[in-house]
Amino acid sequence: MVCLVRLRRIILSSPLICAAASCANAGEIGDAVKSLAGAATIRERISLKDLGLTQPVVLGSTDARREIYLPVPANVSLAEPSLVINGHYLRADGGRTTYTLALDGNVVAARSPADDAGDANIRIGVDGAPRPSGFVRLGLAWSSVTGRFLCDDERSIGNVLQISPDSYFDYGYDPSGVKDIAGAWSALPRKVLLLIAADTLENASYDAAWRLGVALERAGKAVEIVALPKPGSEVDVTGLDIPAPLAAVPAFAALAKGGKITLSSDAEVGALLLLNAPQVRAHIAVADPALAAGLKAALDAVAGELAKADPAAAGVLDALSTRNDTLLQPAGPKAVEIRTMAGRPVIAVAPDAAAAASNLFDSLWRRTALASRLVLNTVGKPEIGADSVALGAIDQAAGNLDVVARGDWTTTFDMGAGLFAGKVPSTMDIEVAAAPGATATSPVASVFINDYLLGAKRLAADGKPERISVAVPSYTLLPRNTVRVQFQRQPASDNCREVPQAFPAAVLPGSRIWLKSAPAAQDFSGMVSQLSGDSVVMVPQAWQAIATRTLPAVIHVADAAGVSPARADFSASATNASLTPQKPFLAFDVAVAGAAEAVKVAGDRVSIADKKGNIFYDVSGLDRIAVLQAVTDMKQPGISYRTIGQGPQFDAPFRFARGDIAVLGQEGILASTSSSGVPLYLNEDGSQGASNEPFTWSKLLDPDFWAHNLSWLITVIIIAAFLLLLLLAQRARKRAGSDQA
Predict the structure, then answer these.
(1) Strand partners, 491
(2) TM segments (predicted)?
(3) Strands, E, within 365-494: which ranges?
(4) Rounded to whole angstroms, how far apart are CA atoms 260 and 237?
(5) CA distance 516 to 526
(6) What are phi and psi of 37, to 5 degrees?
(7) Cβ–Cβ < 8 Å for 625, 648
(8) Does the structure show a pLDDT above 60 at 20?
(9) Average pLDDT of the chain?
(10) What SS3 class is residue 133?
(11) What is the pLDDT of residue 152?
């Protein structure tokens, strides 16, 4: 027996058996690499906060409803989708309360709480069928009945349902189901990762990155710039799941330490790529040769370490590096393609295709991208120089809706992409129609732009077209504008003799925006129309060496200023010499020749002067802010951006306020004023300056003077004609008297 045990120990310790064990371990390494390199189900989680609903959704009153559209990949089956609603209800007024949850129009859950307060949490599975529209429609409804008798007052304020912004929709999908660019776009989450080759970029790649960033911001996405890590980069690998067989490979062993580490080799970057680490994920990439070279170097380095442990594992990576559908190959000239990175679909854009791609990703052409590779020779809109634009044709918004008490029709347009170059809205003719309701009270239609009420009208409600003409003051305009037509009806008559019921209303296709030539820019709002056409974006060449820090500033400010990513030129200045722009400009830390600098920056000191040279702000010790100035005293107007300290890192998009001087911080606009003395808002008639501005003869040559004083002119003509008639009548009487004499 002792001899048998000794013999077993000798066999197990022999070199042959050790080699076999090593081969078994090597086989496990190869299997682990194959598993990592293969396609896997992608899991996504979309919260209401990710959709921009940062405050609770509140449903009150007797009947309240809300629909929320949850984006998903179009025409792709969903794997194990589920919806989690976190909410809270109050029943201070008692009565019968009910809330329901509907998906794609079908009620899937209902609750009828009886306590005074409590949680309204629901977790429910969702049908995984493909959605051609690219959305799952979530419907929330709340009903509260507090009256016990007919015609009791049902207006309660204590029965409320609140849905938390942390409510989320979780789903997975097979990345192989995303077969075209339109499908990949529909799969984008609200926070989009834009991948660049490194923190230092070539001119063309930097130019492409800011154009794509602005296009994404205009589409309602939040952009995060991600640079491919390199040796020396600090990354946080906490929670990174590393298969056990790979822990013996040096690159993976370095990542297994956890916490924040400094990458020491290209092999560790390659290990991050194989593990699909968050630091190397992307949704859109500037697919230049530098990015392809960086990815290939990383995978070659980790393949070398894997080859020592298992030649089969290196073979898997060799096969991966020769595939044409990965980012290891740069995108072709003027091409937009679907590529893969760690098994995930990525929209790869060639640097010279970024300008056209910004138009391709616009709502007009986006759905036409039904291919995995497109060559963008030209993508734009017809330039016919018309004086008006059909309102419904801007984004094909449907105009019909059923209204019980209130209904809103909305559409949006960009100053650059939605209108013609050099034109701004002057008036809007909104044609509406409404069916008769159950009550005698006429419905009211109100017209808003960017939440400014422009006009309203009590409708005849006979089903025939009616027109509402409103002027569009310049102070209401933004780079991206939202037009809203609100219908309001009286849902029931006195003594509740009529049951509330929806009746149709519509915004008709004849509704139009009338355009006029853009006026001379006086402040930030006037710059929007100037920069939305042909313009130039200027940055110092040093900004290209810190791309992840400077690109967010260029993207957010260009978006706020209305710069067209498809039409603007780009210039990177290598010297500190002043530049003379030949087009309306947006200059970042670049001196502009001939510009009157109201803002002067020296280190951490900022001084701001008015038009007369009097300094009204002089402060030192500032940091993490920037100062914007609207330059209007040149042949080519523009905006100058000056960084103080490290400059701000913007959290979210912002919009310019009135004035020609603005201070920016992390939250956006911190302060805004006018250095020229012109009031920040226009007069009621739309004119600039004070209403008692003295008359000058030169105003007779200004068309705006006659437009703003047309009513007075007509009144004067009528009075003059009346006096002339009186004079002629008096002369006629005198002549008749003399004839009789």
Answers:
(1) none
(2) 710-729
(3) 373-375, 388-390, 400-403, 406-414, 423-434, 444-449, 452-458, 466-471, 480-488
(4) 6
(5) 13
(6) -75, -20
(7) yes
(8) no
(9) 82
(10) coil
(11) 59
Q: What is the pLDDT confidence band of residue 21, given thresholds at 50, 70 and 90?
A: very low
Write the CB contacts of 323 (distance below 8 Å, at least 6 apart in sequence). Answer: none
- Residue whose token pair is 């978006």: 559
Q: Is the pTM of this model over 0.85?
A: no
Whole-angstrom distance, CA of residue 642 vs CA of residue 621: 15
- Give the CA radius of gyration of the chain: 33
**Separation CA 65–CA 403 (nearest Å):** 13
- Residue 423 has a CB neighbour count (10 Å cut-off) of 22
Contact 612, 600 (CB under 8 A): no
Report the DSSP pairing between strands 373-375 and 335-341.
antiparallel
553 near 639, Cβ under 8 Å? no
Question: Are the C-beta atoms of residues 175 and 344 closer than 8 Å to each other?
Answer: yes
Please enumerate in sequence order all residues whose Cβ is within 8 A of that of 61, keeping only pairs 6 or more positions apart, or say none: 144, 155, 156
Q: How many residues comprise the chain?
A: 741
Q: Which of 359, 311, 431, 342 is nearest to 30 (CA)?
A: 311
- Mention every residue, 6+ apart, whose C-beta is less than 8 A from residue 614: none
Nearest to 156 by CA among 87, 97, 86: 97
Q: Give the C-alpha separation, 456 to 453, whole Å.
A: 8
Strands of 344-349's sheet in order across: 222-227, 191-196, 284-286, 344-349, 335-341, 373-375
pLDDT in tens, 462-486: 889 999 999 998 778 876 788 899 9
71 and 279 Cβ atoms separated by less than 8 Å: no
Strands (E), 459-604: 466-471, 480-488, 503-507, 512-517, 536-540, 569-573, 585-588, 599-602
Give the three-class secondary structure for 132.
coil
Helices (H), 219-265: 250-255
Q: Of all helices (H) and strands (E), which one includes residue 554? A: helix 547-561
What are the structure tokens assigned to 707, written together?
A: 């437009």
- pLDDT in the model for residue 494: 53
CA distance 637 to 621: 30
Question: For residue 433, is pLDDT > 80?
Answer: yes
**Which contiguous run of DSSP H or E holds residue 583?**
none
Taking each helix axis from N to C end, the angle separating 311-321 and 15-37, rounded to the nearest 10 degrees, works out to 20
| Residue-level pLDDT at 65 | 84
250 burial type by CB count under 10 A (0-12 exposed, 13-18 middle, 19+ buried) = middle
Question: Letter for the amino acid at 327?
Answer: L
**H or E segment to which residue 527 belongs:** helix 524-531
Q: What tokens appear for 457 in the block?
A: 């009208």
